[in-house]
Write a structure and sequence with these properties.
Elements: H1 2-24, H2 30-39, H3 64-83, H4 85-116, H5 126-145, H6 155-168, H7 171-181, H8 186-195, H9 197-206, H10 231-246, H11 269-273, H12 276-306, H13 311-326, H14 328-353, H15 357-363, H16 366-384, H17 391-416, H18 422-437, H19 440-448, H20 456-466, H21 471-485
Helix pairs in contact: 1-5, 1-6, 2-7, 2-12, 3-5, 3-12, 3-18, 3-19, 4-5, 4-8, 4-9, 4-18, 6-14, 6-17, 7-13, 12-13, 12-16, 12-17, 12-18, 12-19, 12-21, 13-17, 14-15, 14-17, 15-21, 16-17, 16-20, 16-21
Length: 490
């Protein structure tokens, strides 16, 4: 029976990878799409009359109002990408896979059709379409992450690979840009993407469960159209599997089992949400994420300034950036591999010495947190130096850092907090970091206005703020050291 189900599971895995790669995170290829929108004269009416007569990357000299409008659209869409993680996660938990995916398909198809039939005269509809596209994409990712449960010991690898595919899907807008330059209209490209919704629907009913895929996977588990299990039966298996999972990872054989007369009190979600560990993790995520959103949202304007309005140069560097984004699917598993190996090593040492297994697991996150902060600092410094060829290095550091950031965030929350609070804490940290990401628009306005297109002082301030991210791994390291040196500390 296991061998008979393997082709179905492999088909689910590969089609899920294709779905994340081709649809889920396309928003982050925004720079390529802005190039096309500018060529199509979107928001050009906001430009000063004298700016329309001068040549730059899109036929305009320096249209501050137009750039601000595109930056605002990206700010809102990227905000929704994070902020809606909590409610979409609730929808997935409450209404299960099929309902969540049908909502995703409706939002995604509505968005792509809106973009397809939008013109320069109705460009304001992008304020509606891009957030809908983003929310539909994040629901695709959330419903696909459970596929890792089908493959047992390869679960973490598949989850990080799907997150990498989400990052790499930003290259879809590069393909649309290249097709546009070859004469394929923006409308034709987005109508094609809309038609692909039929494939999403087919996959929802044929290759995905109606409920949730449990972990650990129970014997004889089946799903899809040919499954005899209804959603209720699937959910019963899920609950049983989760009960089996809860007690294994965080209990040390000698230190973490309560002794006689010692009562182990469960902590509430509120106590974790207001803990110092969670607060500094929020700072770590928010600062690094703000750098990425600000960079992606203002890339077209940055390249236009550095290239002195040379349309060919801007197009070349925009393509280079989008191509590097494709390699996110290859970079993402590196961080997971690093953490898995360190976790195994430290927990083996903990078993031999009888020390805390949970502290050992948490300690394995420290190198990943430090490395992610270092990559962000390098990326920030390169982005701050106004030398055009150096931006190739910026693109490479950006994609590696971004692929490390989100996988590291999920892995840290998994290891640092009880599994029964993971979903709520993950949604909360993403929602709060989304609020911080709204700063990108006033920062962009500050650069374009009072600073007269000179981002130097803003970049210096943000680079200094980036140093705060190193506090988080230091505090985690100190906490683990205290647990190991103090017997009986859980």
């Amino acid at each position: 029976m296991q061998g008979q189900r393997l082709p179905l599971r492999v088909a689910t895995l590969l089609t899920g990878l294709l779905e994340c790669l081709g649809f889920a995170g396309v928003l982050f290829g925004w720079a390529s799409l802005v190039f096309v929108f500018k060529t199509e004269h979107y928001f050009e009416e906001l430009c000063e009359p004298n700016a329309r007569l001068m040549g730059n990357a899109t036929g305009l000299d320096d249209c501050k109002a137009q750039d601000e409008r595109f930056s605002l659209i990206f700010t809102l869409a990227s905000f929704m990408n994070n902020f809606m993680t909590f409610p979409t996660g609730y929808i997935f938990d409450r209404f299960k896979t099929t309902v969540a995916r049908l909502i995703a398909i409706f939002l995604y198809t509505s968005a792509t059709l809106t973009i397809a039939f939008t013109s320069a005269d109705s460009a304001v509809l992008l304020f509606l379409a891009m957030p809908m596209l983003t929310v539909g994409g994040i629901l695709f990712l959330i419903t696909n992450l459970q596929i890792g449960n089908l493959f047992g010991k390869h679960r973490s690898t598949i989850i990080t690979m799907y997150n990498g595919a989400f990052d790499s899907s930003s290259s879809v807008f590069l393909i649309i840009k290249l097709l546009y330059e070859q004469g394929i209209s923006l409308r034709a490209s987005f109508i094609f993407i809309s038609v692909c919704s039929a494939w999403h629907v087919g996959r929802t009913f044929l290759l995905m469960p109606r409920g949730h895929i449990p972990y650990p996977l129970p014997p004889n588990y089946s799903y899809g159209l040919c499954s005899g299990d209804g959603p209720g039966e699937e959910e019963k298996k899920t609950v049983e599997s989760q009960k089996l999972e809860l007690s294994e990872e965080f209990i040390s054989p000698k230190k973490e089992i309560p002794r006689a007369g010692q009562q182990q009190e469960p902590r509430s979600f509120r106590s974790y949400a207001f803990s110092r560990r969670f607060a500094w993790h929020l700072v770590w995520l928010s600062v690094i994420q703000l750098w990425h959103y600000l960079f992606i949202g203002t890339l077209n304007s940055l390249l236009s300034n550095l290239a002195s309005g040379d349309r060919v140069l801007v197009s070349t560097y925009t393509n280079a950036f989008a191509i590097t984004q494709f390699f996110g699917v290859l970079c993402a598993p590196w961080n997971g591999l690093l953490m898995d190996r360190l976790k195994y090593k430290y927990q083996e040492e903990a078993r031999k010495t009888g020390s805390s297994a949970s502290a050992a697991a948490l300690y394995s996150t420290v190198p990943s947190l430090v490395l992610t902060s270092l990559l962000c600092l390098g990326f920030a410094l390169c982005a701050s130096i106004p030398v055009l060829p150096l931006q190739y290095a910026t693109f490479i550091l950006q994609v590696i850092n971004r692929s490390f950031l989100y996988g590291g965030n999920a892995a840290f929350l998994t290891l640092a907090f009880p599994s029964e609070h993971f979903g709520k804490l993950f949604g909360l940290v993403m929602a709060l970091s989304a609020v911080v990401s709204l700063l990108q628009f006033p920062i962009f306005t500050l650069i374009k206005g009072p600073l007269q297109n000179d981002p130097f002082y803003v970049n210096v301030m943000l680079a200094l703020v980036t140093l705060l991210t190193f506090v988080h791994p230091f505090l985690v390291y100190r906490e683990c050291w205290q647990k190991e040196s103090t017997p009986g500390v859980a």
